[in-house]
Design goal:
The chain is of the alpha+beta class. It has 3 helices and 9 strands; from the N terminus they run ββββββββαβαα. The strands form 2 sheets. A 5-stranded mixed β-barrel has the order 1-4-5-8-6. It binds magnesium ion. The site of magnesium ion has 5 residues, from loops.
């Protein structure tokens, strides 16, 4: 499945640029507290709302670092299940479509294991110096990624622009406690 993704953070950088869908601007949230660098490009799919009240995130595998705010087409090959600060915060795993060097990556099984380990390890640790806990549950395939996209599309249609992020989180914690710790 191909999707248009908007880049927030280029690979190998440590500045947490974040799109704020409520204000429709890209904000500089913070510089990562530790020495970690994003192991791959990072961004989101438009019009999908994850359980953390933010757009649905995606890692975009590429050999290059892309510019914040640029749009690209990527194929969704799987997802990484994650809980950040007690909230479900899935990271889709995708591959940039415009580089034939990456054509061999068609499913999550084609991704070199070390690269998956790097991604999981980054997210497990990138908030250590903020004293915040992130739980990485592991990687799933295309089918599961597609159902997350569908779920986040439904959340967007139902709730986005109808309430603030705080109200969304409050309501969802009550109605879907299984998505929160
Ligand atoms: Mg998120």
């Amino acid at each position: 499945m191909n999707k248009e993704i908007i880049i927030e953070i280029g690979k190998d950088t440590n500045i947490k640029y974040e799109y704020n869908p409520y204000k429709k601007v890209i904000e500089v949230d913070r510089v990562l507290f530790g020495t970690e660098r994003y192991p791959q490009n990072y961004g989101f799919i438009q019009n999908k709302l994850d359980w953390d009240g933010d757009p649905l995130d995606s890692l975009i595998i590429s050999n290059h670092s892309f510019m914040t705010g640029s749009h690209l087409e990527a194929r969704i090959i799987g997802s990484m299940e994650m809980i950040d600060g007690g909230e479900t915060d899935t990271k889709l795993i995708s591959v940039f479509n415009g580089d034939p060097r990456l054509d061999y990556i068609k499913t999550i099984k084609d991704v070199p294991q070390h690269l998956l380990d790097e991604i999981a390890n980054f997210f497990k640790n990138y908030k250590n110096l903020q004293k915040k806990e992130v739980i990485v549950k592991g990687f799933l395939g295309k089918k599961e990624a597609e159902s997350v996209i569908k779920e986040c599309e439904d959340l967007y249609t139902k709730y986005f622009d109808k309430m603030s992020k705080e109200e969304f989180l409050k309501n969802m914690k009550k109605e879907h406690p299984e998505k929160y710790l």
